[in-house]
Design a protein that fits this description.
The chain contains two helices and six strands, in the order ββαβββαβ. The protein is of the alpha+beta class.
Amino acid sequence: MIALKDLSAGQCACLVEVGGDRSFRRRLMELGLLPGTRVRMVRRVDIGDLVEIEVRGSHLSLRRSEAGAVFLEATE
């Protein structure tokens, strides 16, 4: 497993697990981050320490600290 924050720009992976507290997990699930979902890293933004990802056709931004609690498996 690899943490979301460790993906390279353009790399895709399949969501395995979302860690963190209950409200954080629920918020991400409401945004479409469910186990088995394909996630693509769009870019890392140094200002604000953010990562931008694409999930189900939508672009989301997460703090890198939050992205460290999201675990993925690399896809081909």
